[in-house]
Write a structure and sequence with these properties.
There is one protein chain. This protein has 199 residues and is α+β, with helices and mostly antiparallel strands. The protein contains four helices and eleven strands, in the order E-E-E-E-E-E-E-E-E-E-E-H-H-H-H. The strands form two sheets. It has a six-stranded antiparallel β-sheet, with no helix packed on it. A five-stranded mixed β-sheet has the order 4-3-5-6-9, with no helix packed on it. Strand 1 and strand 2 form a beta hairpin. The longest helix has 20 residues. The radius of gyration is 35 Å and the shape is elongated. It starts with 8 loop residues before the first strand and ends with a helix. The relative contact order is 0.09.
């Protein structure tokens, strides 16, 4: 009986199906019989993508397929690391890789930090926040809104108000008068006649 190969991970179809053991550090996936994992679907290319175990972390790379390879819904243009919770799309067939990453802790920690940052970034961009309607008072760097309106708003008279003399001249001058038109004069005459008429 031949010795059993070590299983380096398991490719698990999302939504059910037979899990596929990954027993080599480099695996090709596609429709051709020569591929390590054969997926007999019309929308899967002959040689669709490859999986490589690099420093204890699985990576996926598209091999110029027609319908593409994606990770968590983002189509790949280069090799990409895959964590156990990531969904890999081969055309429209979704899989996860069940394995324990054993690579350098710095890489795994960095991947985790990036995931946390992406999730935090997603949280920050709710429609309410984008519209400036966020009412969470416990968020940092936000000025607290007053709980009640002021009891009385004091209005100053023109004599009490102090004006700043540094206002630019073009503001002090006010709007430029527009040139009078003949139609304006006719309109003003009509109004004057209406006012003068006895009621």
């Amino acid at each position: 009986m031949p010795p059993q190969k070590e299983v380096l991970g398991t490719l698990v179809p999302v939504g059910g199906g037979d899990p596929i053991p990954l027993v080599k550090t480099e695996i090709t996936v596609g429709r051709r019989a020569g591929c390590d994992i054969r997926l007999d679907f019309e929308n899967v290319s002959g040689k669709h993508c490859s999986f490589r175990l690099i420093n204890g972390v699985w990576h996926v790379r598209d091999l110029g397929s027609t319908n593409g390879t994606s990770v968590n819904g983002s189509r790949l243009s280069s090799q990409h690391a895959i964590m156990p919770e990531d969904e890999v799309g081969i055309a429209d067939h979704l899989f996860t890789i069940d394995y324990v990453p054993s690579g350098p802790e710095a890489f795994i920690a960095t991947h985790k930090v990036l995931d946390d940052e992406v999730q935090e970034e997603r949280k920050r961009h709710s429609l309410m926040e984008l519209a400036g309607l966020d009412t969470d008072e416990d968020k940092p760097n936000r000025a607290a809104r007053p709980k009640t309106a002021p009891a009385l708003i004091e209005r100053l008279s023109a004599e009490q108000a102090e004006f700043d003399d540094t206002v630019p001249d073009h503001f002090k001058a006010g709007p430029k008068p527009r040139p009078k038109k003949k139609d304006d004069d006719d309109f003003l005459k009509l109004i004057e006649e209406e006012v003068k008429k006895p009621s």
